[in-house]
C-alpha cells in the first residue's frame, strides 16, 4: 500500500511541475521590459529581454521605440560585444519640457544589430538603456519593439493592451511606473493573474502543496483494533 501512495504522490508532483513550467514558459516567450530602479521623475536602467522563439533561426536585430509623448533628455545605450548599436534622433511635433530642459528633438529609436551570430535558437539575451528623466503622474510607458530573425522574419511587438480584454499575441513591452517606489518589472504578458512572476510562483507553489496534501489525504487509514 505504501508503494501505491508513493506513486500517487510522484504523479501529483510531476503534474504540478508541468503546470508551473507551462505558466512560466508562456510569459518568457514575449519581449519584455523591466527596471531595477525606475521612479517617476528620476533616471533608470531599462532592461529589454529578447527570446528567440525558433528552433532553427537566430535573432539578428532589435529596434526599440521610445515614447515621443514623454521623450527622454538622456538616452544611453548598452554596448554589447558582437552587436552594433545606433540611436535615431527626430524633431518633436512640439517642444516638450523635461525637468529643467525643453526638448525640441529627442532620441526616438535605439537599434541593436548583430555583427555575427545573434541570439541562438531557443535562447535569450538582454539589452539595456539608461534613460531619464522619467515622467511624473504617468502610470506606464510603452516601448514598441521590432525583432528580426536570420531568415528574414520580422515580429512587431507593438500591440496595445486593453484592461479586461484578452492579451494580444504580440503585446508591446510596457514599463509600469505607478508602483515604482520599489524595484519594478513590467512583463508584456499581462493577462490578469499571470503578469506578475512572483504571483505566479506563489500561486503555483500553493497548487503544488494543495495537490500533495490531497494525495496524502487519500491514503488509506489503518483500521482500529477493537
UniProtKB/TrEMBL annotation:
Protein keywords: Signal
Leader peptide range in chain numbering: 1-29
InterPro entries recorded: YcnI-copper_dom (IPR012533), YcnI-like_sf (IPR038507)
Domain of life assignment: Bacteria
Span of domain YncI copper-binding: 30-177
UniProt-recorded name of the protein: DUF1775 domain-containing protein
